[in-house]
Design brief:
Radius of gyration: 16 Å
Structural class: alpha/beta
Largest sheet: 7 strands, mixed
Number of strands: 9
CATH superfamily: Vaccinia Virus protein VP39
CATH class: Alpha Beta
CATH topology: Rossmann fold
Number of helices: 5
Order of helices and strands: HHEEHEHEHEEEEE
Strand content: 25-35%
Helix content: 25-40%
Length: 219
């Protein structure tokens, strides 16, 4: 049996999957090189760490495919001074990518095991600029805090406009909105106090955040 060449697989992920799918920002490509994706993939899926598929996690959740993660990062245009709210820690891989690019990340997840596993993995990579919380980000969590970037890692049936108001002026929000079989990735930019611009980026499929109603979402 041939030996699995992790570095070749990582190179192929970048050059044969991510770059051809319209991710051309070299900073994003370098970031994807720098964080070991295999460190965050469940053991049973280690051989699929660099394939362009959503990888199953526990609780019926998914790790986004590399191409979606890269397009997400490119759309946010992250600056080293940015503060980030990540809603849905999941595997912790996207958390690590965000933390390597930004000043600070608040990451929250309803599942305690996701939070503890991600905290352990980021600590092992010496990524320290992340605050992890267990809970529902919709239920008045840190409600007075605003952010430069907000990222939802599960799909929403609709976006509560209150989240746009938590963006600093010049900030951006990434969300995948819709219901199967049609979900679309959106980037929303806050231009002024009362002016927002929205752009539809691409179609994809992700598990929905759990327990959504017209008033609240849980993940």
């Amino acid at each position: 049996m041939p030996i699995f060449d992790i570095e070749q697989a990582r190179f192929n992920m970048i050059e044969q999957q991510i770059r051809p799918w319209e991710t051309l920002d070299q900073q994003v490509l370098d970031l994807m090189y720098s964080v070991p994706r295999e460190h965050f993939v469940p053991k049973d899926y280690h051989m699929q760490a660099f394939t362009d598929v959503n990888i199953p996690l526990t609780h019926g959740q998914m790790m986004m495919s590399p191409t979606v993660e890269a397009r997400l990062l490119q759309s946010l245009m992250i600056h080293p001074s940015d503060t980030v709210l990540e809603i849905g820690t999941g595997s912790g891989y996207l958390t690590a990518l965000l933390a390597k690019a930004a000043k600070f990340v608040d990451s929250i997840d309803i599942y305690e095991d996701f939070v503890w596993d991600a905290k352990y993995k980021l600590n092992s990579l010496n990524i320290k600029n992340v605050s992890f919380e267990i809970g529902n980000a919709i239920d008045n969590w840190n409600y007075e805090t605003s952010y430069d970037l907000i990222v939802f890692t599960g799909a929403l049936t609709k976006l509560d406009p209150e989240f746009q108001k938590r963006l600093n002026i010049g900030g951006s929000l990434f969300a995948i909105i819709g219901e199967q079989p049609v979900m679309q990735a959106h980037i929303i930019n806050r231009i002024t106090e009362n002016n927002f611009e929205s752009e539809t980026l691409f179609e994809t499929l992700l598990p929905s955040l759990l327990g959504q109603t017209t008033a609240s979402f849980k993940f």
